[in-house]
Write a structure and sequence with these properties.
The protein has one domain: Glutaredoxin, CATH 3.40.30.10. Helix content is about 35%, strand content about 25%. It has five helices and seven strands. It has a seven-stranded mixed β-sheet, covered by helices on one side. Strand 4, helix 3 and strand 5 form a beta-alpha-beta unit. The termini are far apart.
Length: about 170
């Protein structure tokens, strides 16, 4: 088979496209694949490349999860990508250990680390600034329905929560 650039290059994450496949390890040690594991009604994926972006990620994930605490049809995943070198794997283990201490055990399957090629991931997800958090709202088929980057603003959170609620409302009828 002849491989062309079109078949070997990842397709960047974009509205209306399926979220690019991402294999990760949860804090509980489970290996998961996004968007497959995110099947359901609504999933928020908060993707960061630097440990220092944690507070930015929390600015989105905290209010979003709080708005849907009682709704089992909504899931929030926190994903940290680290390099796939020996240093990256060691860093992933350190991050995983640090996160495990601050995350309730019931949420360990929702906090993921990815020891992968950072540049490949940046291309696949259209990441231009690795110091920011990247937020993707997926429907039950893994299609990106809303996306943003950076620190949450009141307007951004309203748009995110309204979009998620709009995705859930038709399912109630």
């Amino acid at each position: 088979m002849n491989r062309t650039a079109a078949t070997t290059e990842p397709v960047p994450a974009a509205l209306g496209r399926v979220f690019p496949t991402l294999m990760a390890a949860s804090l509980s040690g489970r290996v998961v694949t996004l968007p497959d594991v995110a099947e359901g009604d609504v999933s928020l994926i908060v993707l960061v490349f630097l440990e220092s972006a944690g507070p930015i990620a929390d600015s989105w994930s905290g209010p979003f999860a709080g708005a849907f605490t009682e709704n089992p049809r909504v899931t929030t995943y926190l994903v940290t990508v680290v390099g796939d070198s020996l240093i990256g794997r060691s860093l992933a283990d350190r991050i995983r250990q640090g996160l495990a201490g601050g995350v309730p055990p019931a949420q360990h399957d929702l906090v993921l680390t990815v020891p992968d090629d950072i540049e490949r991931c940046r291309r696949a997800y259209g990441i231009d600034d690795a110091s920011l958090a990247y937020i993707y709202l997926l429907d039950g088929r893994g299609i990106i329905r809303w996306m943003e980057k950076g620190t949450a603003t009141p307007e951004g959170l309203t748009g995110l929560i309204d979009t998620a609620q709009g995705m859930l409302d038709p399912l109630l009828e």
